[in-house]
Amino acid sequence: MPETLIVSEPRDGRPEHTLRVCALYPDLMNIYADRGNLLLLERRCAWRGMGFVLTGAGLGEAVDPDAHDLFYMGGGQDRDQALCAQDLVDTKREALHAAAARGAVVLGVCGGYQLLGHSYELGDDVLPGVGLLDLKTVRHEGPRLIGNVAIEVTLPDLDGARTIAGFENHGGRTHLAAGQGSLGRVLAGRGNTGDSGAEGARSGNVVGTYIHGPLLPKNAWLADWLTHRALGLDRPLAPLDDAMEDAAHASARAAAGL
């Protein structure tokens, strides 16, 4: 059965809201500071007096589509990603589709992003994906796409465009189908293919991106957007003192040349 990893509740009583997160393959898909993304979500919930529950689902473990508000999958080595790809299709695909259909957030970073599509071709081997995003990834014989990256995004419930900044490091080239929207427009860096001008992909509350290093501590506003969408709130989250978070975001932007 999936294992509960973190339970956090405020000391002054039962919280009005609790964010329930399921980390998919936290031991195998976790090579790009992915725990930092989960810890930031927990801290920002705690600072607002909100509850937080983190559950890990590994190989062979089915997930309940109604038991979690946000599903998260990070990046992994090729061998580990191959193990997770088949298991993801065999034991979790239907649940993830059901969760996404009811409005749960599904976030994939790097390798997790690739597995949200239809397939990842590595030479003669093809890893299956869950098909939540209409895309496919192909391992390219050219150089890896590595470096600081920044993209401009426009998301529902937010006024105006925002910037996501971080680091990318991937050998795969991800190709979006004609009707599949990207997450954002590349301002600096390489993005999905190195020359498409697009980075990541989004369909409703399903989000995939190559940006890590890690993603959310450098873009705290995005963590709040994901939390707000996952909980289906009808009012904004309470503001926080984000001086340190804003400085981290500014540093990531500067590293990308913005």
From TrEMBL:
GO terms for biological process: cell wall organization; cobalamin biosynthetic process; peptidoglycan biosynthetic process; regulation of cell shape. Residues 20-219 form the CobB/CobQ-like glutamine amidotransferase domain. One of its GO terms (molecular function) is glutaminase activity. It catalyses: L-glutamine + H2O = L-glutamate + NH4(+); beta-D-GlcNAc-(1->4)-Mur2Ac(oyl-L-Ala-gamma-D-Glu-L-Lys-D-Ala-D-Ala)-di-trans,octa-cis-undecaprenyl diphosphate + L-glutamine + ATP + H2O = beta-D-GlcNAc-(1->4)-Mur2Ac(oyl-L-Ala-D-isoglutaminyl-L-Lys-D-Ala-D-Ala)-di-trans,octa-cis-undecaprenyl diphosphate + L-glutamate + ADP + phosphate + H(+). Pfam families: GATase_3. InterPro entries: Class_I_gatase-like (IPR029062), CobQ_GATase1 (IPR033949), GATase_3 (IPR011698), Lipid_II_synth_GatD (IPR043702). Gene3D superfamilies: 3.40.50.880. The active site is at residues 110, 212. SUPFAM superfamilies: Class I glutamine amidotransferase-like. PROSITE patterns: GATASE_COBBQ (PS51274). Keywords: Cell shape, Cell wall biogenesis/degradation, Glutamine amidotransferase, Hydrolase, Ligase, Peptidoglycan synthesis. Substrate binds at residue 144. Signal peptide: none annotated. Forms a heterodimer with MurT. Belongs to the CobB/CobQ family. GatD subfamily. This is Lipid II isoglutaminyl synthase (glutamine-hydrolyzing) subunit GatD. It comes from Paraconexibacter sp. AEG42_29.
